[in-house]
């Protein structure tokens, strides 16, 4: 998948808008409610996304090296298939539990946008095809900057589905 920096940043911007627009439609009363059939509230789900994104922002700003022995986007089909397969629960060795640090959508949205801007700045600094060496994904292994960016997009899409299910359970 040949992706330019501007295409990737546009995809991140579109994903950000979609995520925050959906959160904006949820009433303040429901955002922290946890349905009986769920382990998380909608805000806890959003917080989980944020925590993952903050870790990856640090990874993207960390050390990199030229990719060797594979195409720099070769893991994208596996990442996409794993994250966008909604019928199966994706299990990782150490799940990231939400902290519920944001009292409302407005403060969450500001923090989320700020972090996405950090991610876009990291992507603009250097080569998208470089492998990030500061953090290894527990399922996918070492990823390039481009693969991490698409991981974020697919991860957010996955949790948007979860947020929609949670909202339905609260209705």
What does this structure look like?
- It is built from six helices and two strands, in the order αααβααβα.
- Strands 1-2 form a two-stranded antiparallel sheet.
- The protein has 171 residues and is mostly helical.
- The termini are far apart.
- The model has no long low-confidence stretch (mean pLDDT 90).
- It has helices at residues 5-24, 28-31, 42-60, 76-83, 105-124, 145-170, and strands spanning 64-65, 131-132.
- Helices cover 57% and strands 2% of the residues.
- It has a single domain (5-89, 96-170), classed as dinb family like domain (Four Helix Bundle (Hemerythrin (Met), subunit A)), CATH 1.20.120.
- It is globular.
- α4 (76-83) runs parallel beside α6 (145-170).
What's the helix and strand layout?
Blueprint lengths: L4 H20 L3 H4 L10 H19 L3 E2 L10 H8 L21 H20 L6 E2 L12 H26 L1
Antiparallel strand pairs: 1-2
Helix pairs in contact: 1-5, 1-6, 3-5, 3-6, 4-6
Q: Give the CA-CA distance, first to last residue.
A: 40 Å
Structural domain tally:
1
- Order of helices and strands, N to C? HHHEHHEH
Rounded mean pLDDT score: 90
Q: SS-based structural class?
A: mainly alpha
CATH fold-level assignment: Four Helix Bundle (Hemerythrin (Met), subunit A)
| Overall strand count | 2
Using only CA atoms, what is the Rg?
16 Å
| Share in helix | 55-70%
Oligomeric state of this protein: single chain
CATH superfamily: dinb family like domain
What are the segments in which pLDDT stays under 50 over at least 5 consecutive residues? none
Please identify, by name, the CATH architecture. Answer: Up-down Bundle
Question: What is the percentage of strand-forming residues?
Answer: under 5%
- How are the strands ordered across the major sheet? 1-2
Q: Can you summarize the main beta sheet?
A: 2 strands, antiparallel
